[in-house]
C-alpha cells in the first residue's frame, strides 16, 4: 500500500522518485546520443579557410608535388564590360565585347584557378604535403615580386581585381600555416596582399554608382576581409564586413536583393552570384567574432531560401522582373561553381533541400571563394 505522502504526490500529478529516475536516465541517454551525433557531425566538417598547421608527426617524410611555373604575371588590366551598353539592365551580352573581355581576363582567371587548385591539394593531404603548400607560396610570390594586378586601367578592370583578390588571399590562408615556408616569400606575399586589399577598398570608396552597393561591392568586401585576415589589417577586416552589411541590409522580407533584381532576365543568376561573396565574407567574419549571419533578422537565410526555391523553378523571378530567366547552360541544371558557396552555408545551417542539391553536384568549387568548398567545409570531396 502506498504511503500517504506518495499517494498525495500521485494525486497532485507529481512524478514519483522512480519516474524521476527514468526521466533522468532518458535525458542522459538523449544527451549522450546528441553529443555523439554532434561529434560525428563535427568530425565530418572540413577545416574551412583557416587551415591550422599540422603536427610534426603528421607531416609526410618525403613530401612531393609536381609544381609547374606560373604564367607571366598580369600587372596591368584593360578590360571593358561584355554587356551591351544600351541595355539598362546589363543583361544582354555583346558578342564582340565578350570576346575581347574574355581575352583580357583569361590570364587572371587561369592564374587564380590554378593557384587555388594547388592550395586545395595541400588541404586534401590532410594537410601533410608541405611541398604543395610551398608550391602555392611560390606561385603567390612570383606575382607578388612582379607587383601583379596593381595597374587597373578601367572601372571594369577594377571590378575584376575586386573579384580575383579574394580567391588569391583565400588560397594563401589555406597554406600560410604550413611549416617550413620561407619567411621572405611570406613577407612579400603579405605585403602584396595588403596593397591589393587597400586598392580594392579605395577603388570602391571612390565609387558613388550602383556598383558601390551591388554585387561588385560584396566581391570587393570579400577581397578586403580575406586580405585583412591574411596580413592582420583591422581596417581591411572591418571594411570587408561592412561591405557585406551593405548587401545584407538590402535583403527584403521575400529574400531578394533589389539591385540584383534589376538584372531582369539574369536576376536569378545574379542572386546566386551575389550570395557567393556574402556567404564567404560571413564565414570569414565569424572567425573574427562578427556574426553577419544574424544581421537584418537573419537575412542571409532568407536569401538562401529564395535562391534554393528558384533554382529549379524560376517563376518567382520571372513574375517579379517580368522577364523570362536565362536557362542554365549545358544540361539545364545549375552549375556546381554557382552553388559552391552553399557548401559553406550548409556547414553552418544544414537543410535537406540544400543537401539534396549539393549531393547532385559535389564536389563544388569556385576559384573566387578559394576553390573546392566541398573539400574545405565538408572535409572530403
Please characterize this protein's 3D structure.
The strands form two sheets. A two-stranded parallel sheet has the order 1-2. Strands 3-4 form a two-stranded antiparallel sheet. It is mostly helical. Helix 3 runs antiparallel to helix 4 and helix 5 runs antiparallel to helix 6. The radius of gyration is 25 Å and the shape is globular. The protein starts with a helix and ends with a helix. The chain is built from 15 helices and four strands. The longest helix has 30 residues.
Draw up the topology in text.
Elements: H1 4-11, H2 17-44, E1 76-77, H3 95-124, H4 130-145, E2 151-152, H5 155-175, H6 183-205, H7 215-231, H8 234-248, H9 258-261, H10 267-287, H11 295-310, H12 315-321, H13 340-348, H14 352-359, E3 365-366, E4 371-372, H15 373-378
Parallel strand pairs: 1-2
Antiparallel strand pairs: 3-4
Helix pairs in contact: 3-4, 3-5, 4-5, 4-6, 5-6, 5-7, 6-7, 7-8, 7-10, 8-10, 10-11, 10-13
Amino acid at each position: 500500500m502506498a504511503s500517504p505522502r506518495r499517494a498525495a504526490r500521485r494525486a497532485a500529478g507529481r512524478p514519483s522518485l522512480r519516474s524521476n529516475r527514468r526521466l533522468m536516465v532518458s535525458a542522459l541517454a538523449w544527451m549522450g546520443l546528441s553529443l555523439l551525433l554532434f561529434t560525428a557531425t563535427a568530425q565530418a566538417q572540413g577545416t574551412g579557410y583557416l587551415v591550422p598547421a599540422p603536427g610534426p608527426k603528421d607531416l609526410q617524410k618525403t613530401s612531393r608535388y609536381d609544381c609547374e611555373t606560373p604564367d607571366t604575371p598580369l600587372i596591368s588590366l584593360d578590360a571593358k564590360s561584355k554587356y551591351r551598353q544600351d541595355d539598362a539592365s546589363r543583361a544582354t551580352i555583346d558578342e564582340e565585347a565578350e570576346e575581347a573581355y574574355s581575352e583580357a581576363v583569361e590570364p587572371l582567371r587561369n592564374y587564380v584557378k590554378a593557384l587555388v587548385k594547388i592550395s586545395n591539394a595541400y588541404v586534401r593531404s590532410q594537410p601533410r604535403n608541405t611541398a604543395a603548400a610551398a608550391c602555392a607560396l611560390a606561385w603567390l610570390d612570383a606575382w607578388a615580386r612582379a607587383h601583379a594586378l596593381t595597374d587597373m586601367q578601367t572601372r571594369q578592370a577594377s571590378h575584376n581585381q575586386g573579384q580575383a583578390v579574394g580567391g588569391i588571399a583565400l588560397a594563401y590562408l589555406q597554406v600560410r600555416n604550413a611549416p617550413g615556408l620561407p619567411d621572405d616569400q611570406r613577407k612579400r606575399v603579405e605585403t602584396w596582399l595588403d596593397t591589393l586589399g587597400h586598392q580594392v577598398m579605395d577603388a570602391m570608396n571612390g565609387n558613388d554608382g550602383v556598383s558601390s552597393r551591388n554585387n561588385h561591392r560584396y566581391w570587393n568586401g570579400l577581397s578586403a576581409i580575406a586580405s585583412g585576415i591574411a596580413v592582420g589589417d583591422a581596417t581591411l577586416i572591418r571594411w570587408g564586413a561592412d561591405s557585406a552589411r551593405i548587401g545584407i541590409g538590402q535583403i527584403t522580407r521575400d529574400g531578394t536583393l533589389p539591385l540584383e533584381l534589376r538584372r531582369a532576365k539574369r536576376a536569378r543568376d545574379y542572386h546566386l552570384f551575389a550570395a557567393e561573396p556574402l556567404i564567404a565574407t560571413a564565414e570569414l567574419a565569424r572567425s573574427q567574432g562578427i556574426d553577419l549571419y544574424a544581421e537584418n533578422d537573419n537575412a542571409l537565410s532568407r536569401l538562401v531560401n529564395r535562391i534554393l526555391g528558384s533554382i529549379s523553378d524560376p517563376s518567382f523571378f520571372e513574375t517579379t522582373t517580368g522577364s523570362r530567366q536565362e536557362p542554365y547552360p549545358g544540361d539545364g541544371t545549375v552549375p556546381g561553381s554557382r552553388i559552391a558557396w552553399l557548401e559553406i552555408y550548409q556547414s553552418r545551417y544544414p537543410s535537406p533541400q540544400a543537401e539534396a542539391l549539393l549531393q547532385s553536384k559535389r564536389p563544388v568549387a569556385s576559384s573566387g571563394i578559394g576553390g573546392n568548398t566541398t573539400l574545405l567545409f565538408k572535409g572530403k570531396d
